[in-house]
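Re: the 132-residue chain
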Amino acid sequence: MARILVVEDEPLIAMMLCDWLDELGHKTVGPAGTAKLAIDLTISELPDYALVDVNLAGMRSDAVAEILIGRRVPFAFATGSCAEGLAHEYPSIPTLAKPYDFEAVRSVLDQLQQVARSTPPSQSLNLTGPAG
């Protein structure tokens, strides 16, 4: 069972995603509807993986992405719009298309698990914030 941070600002979508993660046998961290809450949960809870909505109340979630990268938490971006900019800025981060599909969520979690298995643990993991 993995602990998965859900970063989604639409409550009904977050609830559905949390239900699916529960069905898949995972524990949900959050959901976080703002970048600040997502960052706070990443620091205090250190999830195994994260699913991060690209657009949180009209703002991109780059700050969340940077914290997750700094803490070596594998994650996927979720977006209902074009992901070309993300692919260029974060080429190794998977993207989950909205509207969500149960099998797509399962597939992206499998990808994140593979990333976690292939990434050696950091000798100097920063437990207080992003790598700098």
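Residues 123-132 have pLDDT under 50 and may be disordered.
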